[in-house]
Amino acid sequence: MAPSGLSVYWRLSNLYLWFFAALGVLMPYWALYLQDQGFAYLEIALLMATIQGTKIIAPNLWGWLGDRSGQRLRLIRMGSMLALLCFAFVLLRPGFWGLLLVMLSFSFFWNAVLPLFEVITLHNLGSDARRYGRVRLWGSIGFIGSVAGFGALLEWLPVSILPWLVLPLFMALFLASFGVRDEPRTRRQPHHGPVTAILKKPEVWSFFILNFMLQASHGPYYTFFSIHLEQIGYGKFSIGTLWALGVLAEVGLFLVMHKVLARFPMRTIMLCAAILTAFRWLVIAEFSAILWILLGAQLLHAASYAALHAASIHYIHAHFGEGHQGQGQALYSGLTYGAGGATGAALAGLMVEWESTVLAFQMGAGAMLIGVLAAWIWMRPNPEHAYAGSRAG
Asked: What range does the record give for the signal peptide (predicted)?
């Protein structure tokens, strides 16, 4: 029987809070730290791509181990501890190749945590899976707190201090894993057929194409958005506030996402959100100097992350069955956040090195439109809605 009650909600929420608090420092400010250390744009892009690139292998390996062993929580604790230890080597300030090795190692373990935890969360929520958005929003709150708080600190402190700010967040993530209860024991045999059979379905592989292109389109954003704004003349606190605004919009949508998922088919949600994402990148490319337009573009983060991520988590849950949940979430993380994010970051680096950040964001919009086309033609989800018995109004 799945545990229920307020304590379960807070235990689950706490781990999301610290995981995304660490992400809230790395995504907006790590590129600025690397720039401060004297790395070229292409080197920055490659170093940032490692955070996404390890998602190609790490979640699939750890997801497979979790499915086979049933010890997902133990793997989460081990992954968060090893991520902390590996990241500490950043303090030695190695050169490009040394830092590349450090980032590969810490992100290999860090990226194992989230897909395993998504499975534990859905199992613990059980029949109350509608509450997923309200649990997950605490990750967004952690991200906002880090972005805003550390943005203010970095107005007064040198960006070179950044590794010392990240380490306590990794420690908090490790400690939070001990407050989580393991998932209830359920049957683990597959009831949707082997993974290869699932992946052959057009509605599944087109789903992965959509999300691969989504994350590729985010490459310029996660790698060069802060640098793009700094070049225009925004200060670090303003940059942090703009990042936080995007995630605040994400929180707002997460609060009502269960109603959206119950009312509209998942395909409709994903297509609309993807089209808005392409529009967002075009706006950032052309109008970032106009603050009120940029504020509107940041509010669209509710579509480009919250709507697509929440719908995707439920989509994986519906298509991969009990026996393949870990592998399904790992494939989602690896093929989309991993391969897509790394590809987008590397291509963005080439675009910026060749011409400008504007061209990189234009590339992001084009990638997103390719994903929309694939989903429009081939993605026919079954079930259409995230919750059984729901009907579109």
From this structure: none
